[in-house]
Records
---
Amino acid sequence: MRAAKLFAQLTIYYLILFGGAWLVIFNNPEMQSYLPIGGAEELINSGGGKSSTLESVAQAQGVKTLGQSLGWMAVAILGALITSFPVTWVYMATRTAEEYDQSIISTILILPSVVTSIVVVVQHSLALAFALGGIAGAVRFKNSLKSWGDALYILLSVGSGLASGIGAVELALVMSLAFNYCFVALWISEYGE
């Protein structure tokens, strides 16, 4: 019963999200060039070409003014957050009381927004990227995960943040959708037990 309710909740959420995004873009096609959408197409198309991935993503982002830049960043962070909500539902539903960790819920929700912000900051600067790597290397993280499955949730959060930060919120949404339905299917079928 819990699994069916979760499956229905996820389906309704994604249908509303995809439908709303389609309505906004269909009714305002010129708005798409100012949103963090379409980066996945640029990444795929630049795979065999001479231009680098960063160059193609930079060309995809058509923001020109400070207001457009702030709007683009706000939508990218909001997109990262929106794709994280259903992941928390799956985590809460599939974990037993012994495995459940409330701090993981906070991490799943906040980490994509933080990663999105960092990617936007370091996206066009190799020096900033190396500086960030040095700073992150100096920080010691002493929290251990209760379950190996929790690492998948953290990895998905980082991936969603990266996708949103490069202007491919649609990629973050598809990653979230695929992860959630696969995890629910494995949970329902008790695969591997």
Note: The longest helix spans residues 66-94.
---
Amino acid sequence: MKLLNKKIKKVLLIYPNFVTKTITDNITIPPLGLETIAECILNHVKVKIIDAKVRNLKVEDLVKEMNEYEPDVVGISCCFTIGIN
């Protein structure tokens, strides 16, 4: 897989741990969109999904994991508009 003449070897997909102070904070929804993307590219690149909400990761923890994994591409999901920030 290539992106602008750079060979992509590792992809990191992130479901962030956002706090909205609404009912959605009490609901755990699997990141099905990220799982679908991972399945589609799994035969071409190494893929890792971090579900920061389930693991209750802080931004610092997430950055640390990103740096350790050293991905070529990062994708971030957001199921609810209220969680965009």
Note: The chain has a mean pLDDT of 85.
---
Amino acid sequence: MSLHSSIQQSSDAMGELFIWTDVDPAHELDFNRWYDREHMQERAAIAGFRWSRRYHSTTCPRPYLALYRTESLKVFTSDTYRQAFTKQTEWSVRNFSRMHNTQRRVAAVTLVYGAGTGAGISLLCLGSIARAEQALKLCGNLGQAAEGILSAKILTPDPALSTPLPSENTSERVLEPYLIIDATRTSEAHKAAAAIAKQLGLREDACHTFDLLWDLQASDL
């Protein structure tokens, strides 16, 4: 795997669709059924998508995270993706309306450490590109920061492609970069992210830990 020495922001960079949300508890069961029985497969099947992944947190007030990797950011301007985004199923429309405080980002991916998918991740909100560049340099020592660290990446949202969903408060919207650390245990992912947060002068509550619910590879369809 080729790692980068600077933050990727070009349209040729690998892309990732990032959906971080809360959901109305009264409809949480249907929300999970929709994701697991329809939405994950729909997105993974779009030309140019590589995989879909879902995560859940028991501590974060925005507990659900979905990530979708694409070959490049250009996939999000393709006719196939546009059709999928603008022609949602009735089940999708119902569940989008039940989502709260949602962040939808289309981001360029910078691979900064290792390889592999762990049992959980830690998500560190970086606040700015300057901090993302600092975080990139710090990630070279991730293997020493905690046990079982597998990989890390930085996601840099593209302003033009990161169209907000209706449940996001656009008056408070910040398109900040994220560091995502994969590890064999969520406690170790958090430990590594918290160490980087401290070095960057960020509060520890900028870190959020998620368990992997499941992974769907486009090649499996």
Note: The CA atoms of residues 62 and 140 lie 29 Å apart.
